[in-house]
Amino acid sequence: MTTAREIMTPGAECIGENQSLEEAARKMKDLDVGALPICGEDDRLKGVLTDRDIVVRCLAVGTDPRQVKAGQLAQGKPVTIGADDSVEEAIDTMQEHQVRRLPVIDGHSLVGMISQADIARSMPEDRVGELVELISFD
């Protein structure tokens, strides 16, 4: 059984809940990523911010990204996967919550991120299409 820890991208960097969306966008550019975990002042995970969130929930409605804090876009309890959970469980979680990226948690610590692409790279080539179909949503 392959675990999330084995295929995740380790060392995920957070955006602070009180940092602006402009700062988040710059950090995404610098790190060449499309999503950042949102971490609170208490170092606990508050959610995940995507480049799409910034565009759709801020820019497209005419809001200034310098005035909106990352934590304002964190909604509900973050969807995560345990570091020692199976890749199959990660796929099920992505499918159930309709997300393409999951923070990987070990205890209460963020240890990495796992994406649809990470999972695809770990699968036999003939099963990648099945994965994309499972996690794709309208």
Number of strands: 7
Rg over CA atoms: 15 Å
Quote the beta fraction: 15-25%
Q: Mean pLDDT, rounded to whole units?
A: 89
Largest sheet: 4 strands, mixed
Morphology: globular
- Helical stretch count? 6
What's the helical proportion of residues?
25-40%
- Structural class call reads alpha/beta
Distance between the ends = 30 Å
Which CATH C-level class is it?
Answer: Alpha Beta
Oligomer: single chain
CATH superfamily: CBS-domain
The CATH topology name reads: CBS-domain
The number of distinct structural domains comes to 1
Order of helices and strands: HEEHEEHEHEEHH
Give me the side-by-side strand order of the main sheet: 1-7-6-5
CATH architecture: Roll
How would you portray this structure in words?
- With 138 residues, the protein is α/β, with parallel strands linked by helices.
- The protein has helices at 4-7, 21-31, 51-57, 87-97, 116-122, 128-135; strands at residues 9-10, 15-16, 35-39, 45-50, 81-82, 101-106, 109-115.
- It has one domain (4-135): CBS-domain (Roll).
- Strand 2, helix 2 (21-31) and strand 3 (35-39) form a beta-alpha-beta unit.
- Helix 5 packs antiparallel against helix 6 (128-135).
- The protein starts with a helix and ends with a helix.
- The mean pLDDT is 89.
- Keywords: CBS domain.
- It comes from Kocuria sediminis.
